[in-house]
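Service request form, structural biology core

Requester: graduate student, group of Dr. S.
Request type: structure prediction, single chain
Budget code: on file
Notes: please return the result as structure tokens.

Sequence provided:
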Amino acid sequence: MGENVILVTGATGVLGREVLDRARRTGLPVRAMTRRTTLPDDPGVTWVTADLESGEGLDAAFDGVATIIHCASDTRKPKHDIPGWRFLLDAAKRAGVGHIVNISIVGVDRIPYSYYKIKVEGERLLAESGIPWSNLRATQFPALLDTAFGVLSKGPVVPVPSKTVCQPVDPGEVADRLVELAQGAPAGRVADMGGPRVYGATDLARSWLKAVGRRRWILPVRVPGKAGAGFRAGGLVTPENAVGVRTWEDYLAAKPSR
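Core staff response, request fulfilled:
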């Protein structure tokens, strides 16, 4: 296997697909990892089957890999992410991987939400692994907000967290940054990455409803506990790192009509 092989985990996900597209453009050998046993015919990419939940197939998948861009995450059963991290790190050590680039979320250390706690633990395991690493925290992807509003708007009222702001960032732009990091030296925790604008949650809901042609009441709801306090304190945004270009309005304008 040639040098400088980049492997992408979670290569079939929203972010993974974007990362894979950017990695292809580098001209470096690229490997994409999936749990699927039927692999796509994808020019310029070597697809491999491996499972982070069990560790099966990781040694073969990582053989000859210089850099891993880790995008895989089980959002439905996030508790699987921690065993997945351990399998990934152990296999990466055996394979002599020289750099792991991880994607995380802005606010994971400020909002005690269960999934965020798992992301923080993953960051800790990486930092303590002894493998050189880079870690990027990004704000919310528009598709996530889109899905949430789609669910919340099924009734006559759309509940949204009160006094909460968000900063949607384009996943393609995050992918650009991850691939840039993968081609550079391990940098530890790098500057957070946010979209170009900060929006109130109610404003996001209002613009989404207009874009999809739905009439609903918007109901600001005070989220209780420390997580709600973190939302209201601006834990989801990084206005000092508003480096994204594509806006929420751009995303809505590109949505197919419903």
